[in-house]
User: Which sequence fits this backbone?
């Protein structure tokens, strides 16, 4: 590429400007745009989140976890850890459909849930599980539905079907194509609001924690085959780009 300087440097000749420009390029290329590590002099953080306390309690076999900078347990009664996972029943009123029974929980669909009530409850839940704001990780583990409409395949297709049915019930004059388009818009808008506002709330209450969602981003390339190389499909890259709002808000 060609680097163009719009305005000359006062007091410098053309040759000096060219020399200065080429000296500047290596400096720009070495700038580190990554966020600093959460622990000083620890560029890579090992985290442990398994209920291994049972080993000591039941079998008197303590485990040495000194290798890990972050240690936590997913048990519901354990609080104040430096790594906290918020499952579907531990953070607000997350709307979802029970896989086995089909029961609608908290409205079932994000567009049928109450975001206000959810955030009120989430505020109390965050204060309970993270009583003090020390440095740590806060991971929201919501796996029932995905905010990108097309990614709700297989068992998650029920969220698309129920969303379409909801639109058809409220607008009987719409055909399937029209109802699907409307349902997609409503679902993605509501799903985005639930995820985005929950992140904002967590960051405002516990700013020293790093907040994000489990399994985001994902390439959905989990298949077994001799030709598997771990690469991300182009279509999934584009879909991940569509979640830029989530990456910007995550820490």
Assistant:
């Amino acid at each position: 590429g060609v680097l163009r300087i719009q305005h000359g440097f006062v007091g410098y000749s053309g040759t000096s400007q060219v020399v200065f420009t080429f000296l500047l390029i290596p400096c720009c290329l070495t700038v580190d745009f990554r966020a600093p590590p959460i622990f000083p002099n620890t560029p890579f953080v090992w985290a442990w989140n398994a209920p291994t306390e049972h080993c000591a309690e039941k079998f008197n076999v303590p485990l040495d976890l000194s290798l890990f900078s972050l240690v936590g347990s997913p048990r519901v009664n354990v609080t104040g850890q430096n790594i906290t996972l918020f499952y579907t029943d531990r953070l607000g009123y997350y709307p979802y459909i029970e896989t086995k029974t089909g029961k609608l929980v908290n409205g079932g669909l994000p567009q049928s849930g109450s975001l206000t009530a959810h955030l009120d409850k989430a505020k109390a839940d965050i204060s309970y599980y993270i009583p003090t704001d020390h440095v740590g990780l806060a991971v929201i583990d919501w796996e029932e539905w995905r905010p990108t409409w097309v990614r709700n395949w297989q068992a998650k297709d029920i969220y698309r079907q129920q969303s379409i049915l909801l639109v058809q019930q409220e607008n009987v004059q719409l055909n399937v194509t029209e109802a699907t388009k409307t349902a997609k818009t409503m679902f993605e808008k509501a799903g985005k609001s639930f995820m985005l506002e929950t992140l904002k709330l967590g960051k405002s209450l516990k700013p020293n924690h790093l907040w994000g969602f489990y399994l985001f981003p994902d390439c959905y390339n989990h298949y077994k085959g001799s030709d598997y190389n771990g690469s991300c499909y182009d279509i999934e890259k584009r879909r991940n780009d569509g979640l830029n709002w989530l990456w910007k808000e995550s820490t």
Remarks:
- Residues 83 and 137 are 5 Å apart (CA to CA).
- The first strand starts at residue 47 and ends at 49.
- Residues 1-10 have pLDDT under 50 and may be disordered.
- Residues 79-249 form a domain with the TIM Barrel fold (CATH 3.20.20.70).
